[in-house]
Structures are given as structure tokens and as C-alpha cells.
Write a structure and sequence with these properties.
122 residues; mainly alpha; 39% helix; binds heme C
């Protein structure tokens, strides 16, 4: 297993709010074609409302691939980061296509930060 893409956690920085804001722009560019963050609003992809803490492939109103349905883990910041870097590595056989992966660790951190701040509220 290769860990070279894993970024250290910069989550304790005071600039977190700014990171979430620029994360929204990155999210708009990279994810919003297929996803919303609104509960119940599924597009080509399932909605990402409260995605951190949600079981993978668990929305009842969305038709997941068998691979996603049976992934058997709960989304957290780490596996979400790995998934948007390289979905094939985290859920082989997934149906999130066409999606090329996001190579920049910094951009991924910002998107995950945006998803956490925009849709948290457990
Ligand atoms: C081309 C459309 C498309 C793009 C772009 C895309 N996704 Fe997806 N996404 C999908 C589809 C389709 C699925 C369902 C995959 C499956 O069932 O295997 C999915 C599934 C997911 C899941 C699993 C959700 C769950 O309920 O378990 C997450 C998390 C996710 N995407 C995050 C992202 C993020 C973050 C981005 C941007 C960096 C992104 N996606 C970009 C189409 C897309």
C-alpha cells in the first residue's frame, strides 16, 4: 500500500474558515456537476448532506453501484480524502465516473473542510 498521497492533518490551523470558503469554490468546480449538499437532493451522484459520519452507499433513495453499497465503512475525513484522490483505491468497482481524481492534497483538504462545515450538524 502506498501512503505517499496522504497529507498530514493541518486541521488545527486558525485559517480553517478561509479554507472552507475556498473549498466551496473547489467543490463547485470538481463535484457540483454531480452532487448537491442538500438532504434528499440526488443528482447523477448521491447528495453529500452530512457525508462525514454517514455510512458509504447508505441513502435509500439512490441507486448505488453494488461496490458502493457493500463498501461497509463510514465516511470520515481520511477516507473521503483518499476517495477523492483516487476512488478506485477506496471503493474498487464504484460508479463515480467520469472522475479523474484530485491530485492536490491541499485542494482535497479544502473540499473536505467545506463538506464538513457546510453539512455537519450531527
Ligand atoms: C461525474 C459525476 C461525479 C463527480 C464529478 C463527482 N462525483 Fe461523487 N459520486 C458520483 C456517483 C455517480 C456516485 C455513486 C457511486 C457509486 O454508486 O458507486 C458518487 C459517490 C460519491 C460519494 C459516496 C456517497 C455515499 O453516499 O456513500 C462521495 C463521498 C462522493 N461521491 C464525493 C464526491 C466529491 C467530494 C467530489 C468532488 C471532488 C465528487 N464526488 C465528484 C458522481 C460524481
Amino acid at each position: 500500500m502506498t501512503c505517499t498521497l496522504l497529507s498530514p492533518s493541518y486541521g488545527q490551523e486558525p485559517a480553517r474558515q478561509g479554507a472552507a470558503e475556498s473549498g466551496q469554490l473547489l467543490y463547485n468546480n470538481a463535484c457540483r456537476t454531480c452532487h448537491t449538499t442538500k438532504e434528499g437532493d440526488n443528482r447523477l451522484g448521491p447528495n453529500l448532506h452530512k457525508i462525514i459520519g454517514r455510512k458509504a452507499g447508505s441513502l435509500s433513495g439512490y441507486g448505488y453501484s453494488a461496490a458502493m453499497k457493500e463498501a461497509g465503512f463510514v465516511w470520515n475525513e481520511e477516507n473521503l480524502d483518499r476517495f477523492i484522490a483516487n476512488p478506485d483505491e477506496v471503493v474498487p468497482g464504484h460508479n463515480m465516473k467520469p472522475y479523474g481524481g484530485l491530485a492536490s492534497a491541499e485542494e482535497r483538504t479544502r473540499i473536505v473542510s467545506f463538506l464538513r462545515s457546510a453539512t455537519s450538524g450531527q
